Amino acid sequence: MGSNTRLRKAAAVVAIGAGMTLAGMAPAMAAAATVSADPNTGLAPGQTITVSGSGFAAGSTLRVAECGVGDAGLGSCNAADASQVTTDGNGAFTTQLTLRMTFDGVDGNGNPGGAVDCSKEECFVVAVDTESTAATTPISFG
Questions:
Q1: What is the pTM of this model?
Q2: Biological process (GO) annotations (predicted)?
Q3: Could you give the CA distance from residue 120 to residue 62 in angstroms, rounded to a whole number?
Q4: Are 51 and 64 in contact (CB under 8 A)?
């Protein structure tokens, strides 16, 4: 599965988390996966954070991205700064992610999701694997 497909799934997860409905994406909200960001508040544009997660399948490839709801009203993920990581034998990972306060992202349909401004709306870090297992954690700037 390509990285753009994983980002579309991540964008769909964000849209669902924001109270929107995208048919067929319920499996993306797998029960056991978790993700955290350090730091996750008081962030500055261009800051690099540490993202850690667990509960994914061992040895799975994940896409980790910053996401929000774009001005098109859909989940929108920052593809330009997304990272790819492989989980360890326990299904855990740690990676670095550079954040942007504003970005033009990709929506759940693979189309431009519109501009996201994390100073005006809640943004998230999302980790999603090739099996549609995903987890999110909120981040905030300021």
A1: 0.79
A2: defense response to bacterium
A3: 28
A4: yes
Q: What is the pLDDT along the chain (142 residues), one digit of tens a residue?
A: 455 555 555 555 544 344 332 323 333 444 589 999 999 999 999 999 999 999 999 999 999 999 998 877 778 999 999 999 999 999 999 999 999 999 999 876 678 889 999 999 999 999 999 888 999 999 999 9
> Using an 8 Å Cβ cutoff, are 60 and 45 in contact?
no
136 burial type by CB count under 10 A (0-12 exposed, 13-18 middle, 19+ buried): buried
Least Cα distance to 14 among 135, 129, 141 occurs for 135
Q: Domains in the chain and their CATH numbers? A: 34-139 (2.60.40.230)
| Beta carbons of 103 and 115 less than 8 angstroms apart | yes
| 62: nearest Cα among 83, 38, 90 | 83
Q: State whether residue 71 is helix, strand or coil.
A: coil
In degrees and rounded to multiples of 5, residue 109 shows phi and psi of: -105, 5
Between the two ends of the chain, the Cα-to-Cα distance in Å is: 36
